[in-house]
Design a protein that fits this description.
The chain has 200 residues and is of the alpha/beta class. A 9-stranded mixed sheet has the order 1-9-7-8-6-5-2-3-4. The longest helix is centred in the C-terminal third of the chain and has 17 residues. 34% of the residues lie in helices and 22% in strands. Helix 4 links the parallel strand 5 and strand 6. It has a single domain, classed as Rossmann fold.
Amino acid sequence: MIIIKETDRTLVICPHPDDEIAWCYSQLNERTTVILLSKSRRSTASRKLANVIGYNLLEYDFPDLHFSSRYDEVLKCIEGIITDGDFERLVYTAPSQHQDHKVVNDIMHIITRPLANKIVEVYEYPYLTYEYTEYNAIFKVTDQKFKELEAFDMGSSWEKYIRNYNAYIASRHNRDGYYEPFKLIFKEWNTLPSAISIAR
C-alpha cells in the first residue's frame, strides 16, 4: 500500500471551473495549488471552495472549447507555474473527447517528460467516467464533497451521477463510502504497481 500524505505539495490542472470538485476533490487541501485555465458562471463557486478549503487558486481566461487556438500560450502558462513551483505531485486530466481536456493532456505529456528528477508522482483524472475505465489508484472522499458540489449548480442529474460513480468505485474495491479514481502514470522510483490502494 502506498500512503499519500496531505503534506505533499500538489498541483491540480483543470481546464474549467468545476473539474476540481467533480473529479479531484480528494486532492484538495492547504498544500494544493489549483490552476483553472478558463472562466465560467461557476468561477465564483470555485473561488468560494478554495477559500473554504484553503488552497491556492490560479485563474486564467483561455477561451472555453478553443484551447487549441492558444496552444502555445496554454503550454507556456502551465510550464511556467511548474518550473517556478516546488510541487511533489502533478494531477491533470486524462485523454478525453472534450477538446480542451485533450489539449491539456497532450501539453502535460510534453511538459512532464523532462521532470523525472523533479516530480515525485504524476496522476491523470477522468473527465467523463464512461471514457475512463483504466485506473490504478483510488482516493477517499467524504459527504462534504457533495455538499460543496451543490454550489456549482451542475444540475441534480450530474450531481447524482458523480455521487453514484464515486460510490461505485468504492464498492468495486470493497470499501464503504466514496472514492475517486486516478491513473498513477509516474513515481520517482519509476515503478508502477498493477493496483494501488490509497489510504488517507
